[in-house]
Amino acid sequence: MRHTANPWQSYRQVATKTATPGQLVLMLFDGALRFLDKALVGFELDDPLDSNLAINNNILKAQEIIRELNVSLNLEGGGEFAVTMRRLYNYYDLQLSQSNLKKDPTGIHLVIRLLTVIRDAWAEMLAGGAQRSVDRHAELQLQAA
């Protein structure tokens, strides 16, 4: 029996391998936001087990991404920007932990709102001709990981 690859998974693998460092960071922002949106859907589920699993699993996945972004910051080369991002990522992680523990969507909504601002600014920098500068900054961030 022949195994057929998932075309979406194949596309993501190619996109990840061919993306610039700046695009990779944007993909991480998008992934975290996608998991947080899925966690919010968990609050609408009727079955308590399904609800708790959806909330917990998707928050944990978003936290993994945020933690990866956090540990990949180059604090020496990134200056005040990297220090500020470290504080923000730690704050996001704390808010998501509290939302998960209390099963309260407030922290998720807050992180989505704040992370979307950063994500959109990053995307604008990539689209606005600052690609080389953003890629260099992202490359430094990823090298530290």
Q: Could you write a compact summary of the structure shown?
A:
With 145 residues, the protein is mainly α. It has helices at residues 7-18, 21-42, 48-71, 75-102, 106-127, 131-143.
3D structure, described in words:
- With 145 residues, the protein is mostly helical.
- The protein has a single domain, classed as Four Helix Bundle (Hemerythrin (Met), subunit A) (Up-down Bundle).
- α2 runs antiparallel to α5 and α2 crosses α6.
- The protein is globular.
- The termini are far apart.
- The model has no long low-confidence stretch (mean pLDDT 87).
Which features does this protein show?
145 residues, mainly alpha, Four Helix Bundle (Hemerythrin (Met), subunit A), 6 helices, 0% strand
CATH architecture: Up-down Bundle
What's the helical proportion of residues? Answer: over 70%
The N- to C-terminal Cα distance equals 40 Å
In round numbers, the mean pLDDT is 87
Largest sheet: none
Count of extended strands:
0
How many structural domains does the protein architecture include? 1
H/E topology pattern:
HHHHHH
The outline comes out as globular
Alpha-carbon Rg, integer: 17 Å
